[in-house]
C-alpha cells in the first residue's frame, strides 16, 4: 500500500517550473533515494511534502490523508520528519540533552538510550554536541528526528561533507532505523557510493519530474541517466 503518494505535483517560481507534474508512490516501511543534477527540483519537492511551500497543483497524500497545503507543524505532527543539509543541533548541550529537548516524551530514558545506540553515539552521550565530528553531528540530527517518533523521514543529503567510512556508516544507520523502527525513508543524495550501499529503489529527477526509476545498477547503466549527467551515454554515473 502507498504510504506517501505524490500526485502530479507542480510548483512554479515566476517563469521557472521547479517541479513539473511529479508523481511517485512510496511504500510503507521502504527506503527510497531521489537523485538528480543541481537545480532539478529535489529540495523544492521536499518543501512541498513538508508544507514549507504550497504546490500550484497536485496532491500529497500521507497514510491515505490528503495533507496538501497544510502548515509544516501540522504535517510534522502527523509523522513526517525532515533533516536539512546543515545539522540543526544545540552545540552547547550534550548529545543526551539534545535528545531530551527533542523528545516527545522527555522522561522516557529507555527510548533515548535506544536512539543513542541506533545512531552510534552511546559513548558520546555526555559530550557537547558542538565537539562532535561532522558525521556524528549529522547522526545526532537523525537521532533528534527519531526522538519525535516520525513514521516517515526525509533526509536531504545526509552524507554531505562526510568521509567514506562515515558515509558507509550512515547507510548502515539508515538500514538499522528502517528495519528496527519500520521507518519509511526518502533520501536525497548526490553520492552514488552511498546510494549503492543503500541498495534501495532509486528515482532520478530531471527538470522537475522523474526521468527513470530502478535499482542502483539499472540506474547506473541507463543511457538516459548517463546523458543527463554527462551529455553522453558513454560514461558511468559515479559522481
Ligand atoms: N524560493 C524560490 N524562489 C525562486 N526560485 C527557486 C526557489 N526555490 C528553488 N528555486 C529554483 O527552483 C529550481 C529547483 O531548485 P531546488 O533547490 O529544488 O533544486 P535541487 O535539485 O534541490 O538542487 P540542489 O541539488 O542544488 O540542492 C532551481 O532553479 C532553483 O533556483
TrEMBL record:
<keyword id="KW-0547">Nucleotide-binding</keyword>
<dbReference type="InterPro" id="IPR003439">
    <property type="entry name" value="ABC_transporter-like_ATP-bd"/>
</dbReference>
<feature type="domain" description="ABC transporter">
    <location>
        <begin position="4"/>
        <end position="232"/>
    </location>
</feature>
<keyword id="KW-0067">ATP-binding</keyword>
<dbReference type="Pfam" id="PF00005">
    <property type="entry name" value="ABC_tran"/>
</dbReference>
<dbReference type="InterPro" id="IPR027417">
    <property type="entry name" value="P-loop_NTPase"/>
</dbReference>
<protein>
    <submittedName>
        <fullName>ATP-binding cassette domain-containing protein</fullName>
    </submittedName>
</protein>
<dbReference type="GO" id="GO:0005524">
    <property type="term" value="F:ATP binding"/>
</dbReference>
<dbReference type="InterPro" id="IPR003593">
    <property type="entry name" value="AAA+_ATPase"/>
</dbReference>
<dbReference type="GO" id="GO:0005886">
    <property type="term" value="C:plasma membrane"/>
</dbReference>
<keyword id="KW-0813">Transport</keyword>
<dbReference type="InterPro" id="IPR051120">
    <property type="entry name" value="ABC_AA/LPS_Transport"/>
</dbReference>
<dbReference type="GO" id="GO:0016887">
    <property type="term" value="F:ATP hydrolysis activity"/>
</dbReference>
Amino acid at each position: 500500500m502507498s504510504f506517501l503518494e505524490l500526485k502530479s505535483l507542480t510548483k512554479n517560481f515566476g517563469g521557472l517550473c521547479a517541479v513539473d507534474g511529479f508523481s511517485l508512490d512510496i511504500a510503507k516501511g521502504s527506503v527510497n533515494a531521489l537523485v538528480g543534477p543541481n537545480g532539478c527540483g529535489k529540495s523544492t519537492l521536499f518543501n512541498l511534502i513538508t508544507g514549507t511551500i504550497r504546490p500550484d497543483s497536485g496532491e500529497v497524500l500521507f497514510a491515505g490523508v490528503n495533507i496538501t497545503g497544510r502548515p509544516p507543524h501540522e504535517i510534522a505532527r502527523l509523522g513526517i520528519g525532515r533533516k536539512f543539509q546543515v545539522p540543526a543541533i544545540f552545540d552547547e548541550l550534550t548529545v543526551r540533552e539534545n535528545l531530551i529537548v527533542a523528545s516527545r516524551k522527555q522522561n522516557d530514558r529507555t527510548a533515548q538510550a535506544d536512539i543513542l545506540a541506533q545512531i552510534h553515539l552511546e559513548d558520546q552521550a555526555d559530550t557537547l554536541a558542538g565537539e562532535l565530528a561532522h558525521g556524528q553531528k549529522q547522526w545526532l540530527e537523525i537521532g533528534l528526528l527519531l526522538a519525535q517518533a516520525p513514521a516517515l523521514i526525509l533526509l536531504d543529503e545526509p552524507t554531505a561533507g562526510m568521509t567514506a567510512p562515515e558515509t558507509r556508516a550512515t547507510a548502515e544507520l539508515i538500514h538499522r532505523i528502517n528495519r528496527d523502527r519500520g521507518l519509511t525513508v526518502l533520501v536525497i543524495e548526490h553520492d552514488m557510493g552511498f546510494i549503492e550501499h543503500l541498495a534501495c529503489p532509486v528515482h532520478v529527477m530531471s527538470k522537475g519530474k522523474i526521468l527513470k526509476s530502478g535499482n542502483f545498477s539499472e540506474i547506473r547503466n541507463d543511457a538516459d541517466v548517463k546523458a543527463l549527467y554527462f551529455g553522453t551515454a558513454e560514461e558511468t554515473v559515479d559522481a
